[in-house]
Every structure is written in C-alpha cells, then in structure tokens.
# Entry
Amino acid sequence: MYSVKDCNIINLTKIHNQAGNITVLENNKSIPFQVKRVYYLYDVPMGSERGGHGHYQLEQFIVAASGSFTIVLDDGKDKKYFFLNNPSEALYIKPGIWREIINFSSGSICLVLASQEYSEKDYIRDYDKYLQWKLLK
# Structure
C-alpha cells in the first residue's frame, strides 16, 4: 500500500533550442508505466476543484502543460501538496492515493497520462469509503 511519500515530482528531459523547448514522454522510459489513456483538463473556472477521488490500481503522471495548479494528495494519514507550473516536470501518483486538484490559474492545462483505460470500478469517489478501504489494507 502506497503513501503520499511514494508520490513525487519527476524532472523530465527538456531539449532547448532557439525555436523553443520540447519534452518527450515515452512508455517505460520517462514514464514508469505503459500509458493506456491520456486526457487533459482545461477551461476550469477559477475556484473550481477537480479530482476528489482515489484509485485502487491506476497510476498517473500529471503535467502542467500550461499555467499552474496545486494537487493535494492524501493517503488517509498524511497530506502532501504539489504546485505544478512547469511542463518539464510531472507528478507521479501511485495507486491508492486520494487526490484533489485546486487553484487552477487562468488558461491552465492539466495533462494526465494514466496506466489504465477508464474503468469506473477503479474509482473510489467517497472519502469515507476510501478511508475504510485504506484501513483494511
């Protein structure tokens, strides 16, 4: 069972030249799992929150492709806050961690790379049920 201490910022390789920067994400190289799904959040109204759930098995790599936001990770015992504002950094979230995304800046884009295709069965959407599940593990 993972804790928030197992989730961290990964510095991605940034290749710079006069025409701009590029960061490449590759399965099992820069990303420590096989990506099965990619999605992104954008046009999130000021003051809104996203996330508010945990996953039984899903791993995620989250990048602030544009702008900034804060991700709050919670393992039932500890909380950890990550401010993302650099597209050459990714937050690696292990399975079994509750997450909320807050404080979106105007024009921000939250890029998420996931280890599994969408499955509602993998979501824990009620925090009390999440805590009960964590206690059983």
